[in-house]
Design a protein that fits this description.
Length: 79
């Protein structure tokens, strides 16, 4: 899925982009790690979210963090 289709997550500091070996990209919500109200992979596009926060990431970048699917990821091997 194109990052254009992730809605407001694409401008949120808590979004990470996860790339699979099959060429798909998923929007991971980092807030889900500490707050169960937020799904790990929200249904996109997200049009409203109480956790949305615009601004710089802790590493100083404004772009989403990008990484490959970790081995313990529940989506690993399913897509
Ligand atoms: S906090 Fe909300 S807007 Fe931000 S990445 Fe998570 S689901 Fe998307």
């Amino acid at each position: 899925m194109s990052s254009d289709n992730f809605g407001i997550c694409s401008a949120c500091v808590f979004q990470s982009l996860v790339h699979t070996t099959r060429g798909s990209t998923f929007s991971l919500c980092e807030r889900s790690r500490e707050d169960s109200r937020y799904p790990r992979y929200p249904r996109v596009p997200v049009s409203a979210c109480s956790g949305y926060s615009e601004g710089r990431r802790s590493d100083g970048t404004e772009q989403p963090a990008e990484r490959a699917v970790p081995e313990d990821d529940p989506l690993a091997g399913e897509r």
